[in-house]
Specification:
single chain, 14% strand, two-stranded antiparallel sheet, 111 residues, 2 helices, alpha+beta
Length: 111
């Protein structure tokens, strides 16, 4: 059992395109993993206030920014980009599959 994308597709002339389709499919899987990670981590990115007493009545206050919204937007864009790269990868694999089918049918017709 082969685990890489489009493992059942064969080709005669378009080997580099098949390799590119597999690589792009793998990249889309990585983008999905990043999106899922961001969705899991986003609720834990909360803001807060840090105060430090400097003595003699002087206090410094720092506010940590809230990155939850940014993480949600980044995860949504990761999902969209993963779907787009997966669609492009599927299109490349479909071209390779059509080429193989055409080549096989042409060879069968000449024999």
């Amino acid at each position: 059992m082969k685990i890489y994308p489009y493992s059942r597709i064969k080709t005669v002339n378009l080997g580099p395109l098949l390799i590119a389709a597999r690589l792009i499919g793998f990249i889309s899987f990585i983008l999905f993993a990043i999106a899922i990670t961001l969705m899991i981590v986003a609720p834990f990115l909360e803001s807060g206030v840090i105060t430090q007493d400097l003595g003699s009545g002087t206090t410094l206050t720092f506010t940590k920014p809230n990155h939850t919204g940014l993480a949600i937007v980044a995860s949504l864009w990761s999902v969209v980009s993963a779907l787009a790269t997966l669609a492009f990868s599927g299109l490349c694999a479909a071209v390779v599959s059509l080429e193989y089918t055409y080549t096989q049918s042409k060879q069968a017709a000449t024999e």
